[in-house]
Write a structure and sequence with these properties.
Blueprint (H helix, E strand, L loop, with lengths): L1 E10 L2 E11 L4 E5 L6 H8 L7 E6 L2 E2 L8 E4 L11 H11 L5 H14 L15 H13 L5 E5 L7 H15 L4 E5 L3 H7 L2 E6 L2 E6 L1 H6 L4 H10 L1
Helix pairs in contact: 2-3, 2-4, 3-4, 4-5
The structure holds adenosine-5'-triphosphate and magnesium ion.
Length: 234
């Protein structure tokens, strides 16, 4: 579903991604972990064409990514990015109507289902400012799902949340894991990553240092840098 081949990305002189290669199968859930500044967000942003790469190739569903990629690949950011002047429901139906040209009625039917799924049916006519952080993030997830993406990217979806609100968002993501959607999740929640992922990728200084099965990678890391990282964060 996602094929990343020898990707290099620079910001000016700064090499941020260096020879990154990874294949992600349909329905697979891959978590990316690693220290701050290691290039995790940049990699996600390259998959979604929010950044251009300098070298290498990225394919989604067999096609080289282009500017239409947002129809196939959804993204949930750390900071929710909801439209403040739109209600919860309006936030969720916006892109399906504008980008996918769905009829309003159809978009609302889809949104109703998704808001139910994330447990926010009773908040659909409320503005984002009246929501908790966890609720906002659940709206952001419903909004991404409304485009019926084949791939969903999460960039630290819980890092802006108070500890007591993290669980409700992780639970929503866990439920999605049972569906067919391919997910790439950048997270600092190691326990969550271990539970939900089919595979873990550890990045440091723009490179993939180690990747593998969650149990093996967390319990028996090969690389010294990963061992040091895990000791620090767990
Ligand atoms: N738009 C930009 N212009 C210049 N440098 C950038 C830009 N975006 C990111 N960088 C640099 O690229 C490197 C990787 O950043 P990135 O945001 O991908 O790291 P990260 O692994 O997501 O870190 P964190 O865990 O803190 O979110 C950092 O050194 C950062 O300063
Ligand atoms: Mg980041």
């Amino acid at each position: 579903m996602i094929k990343i081949n020898n990707v290099y990305k620079k910001f000016g002189e700064l090499e941020v991604l260096e020879n990154v290669t990874i294949d992600i199968k349909k329905g697979e859930i891959v978590s990316i972990i690693g220290p701050s500044g290691s290039g995790k967000s940049t990699l996600l942003r390259c998959i979604n064409k929010l950044e251009d790469i300098n070298l290498g190739d990225i394919y989604v569903d067999g096609k080289k990514i282009d500017k239409n990629i947002s129809k196939k690949v959804g993204m949930v950011f750390q900071g929710f990015n909801l439209f403040p002047h739109k209600t919860v429901l309006e936030n969720v139906i916006e892109a399906p109507i504008i980008v996918k040209k769905l009829k309003r009625k159809k978009a609302i039917a889809i949104a109703d289902k998704l808001l139910k799924k994330v447990g926010l049916t009773d908040k659909k006519d409320v503005y984002p400012s009246k929501l908790s952080g966890g609720q906002k993030q659940r709206v952001a997830i419903a909004r991404a799902l409304a485009m019926e993406p084949e791939v969903l990217l999460f960039d630290e979806p819980t890092s802006a949340l108070d500890p007591e609100l993290i669980g409700e968002v992780l639970n929503v993501i866990k439920e999605l894991a049972n569906e067919d959607i391919t997910m790439v999740i950048v997270t600092h929640q190691m326990q969550f990553a271990k539970e939900i992922s089919d595979r873990i990728v550890f990045m440091d200084e723009g490179k993939i240092i180690e990747k593998g099965d969650p149990k093996q990678l967390f319990n028996n890391p090969n690389e010294k840098r990963l061992r040091r990282f895990l000791k620090r964060v767990i």
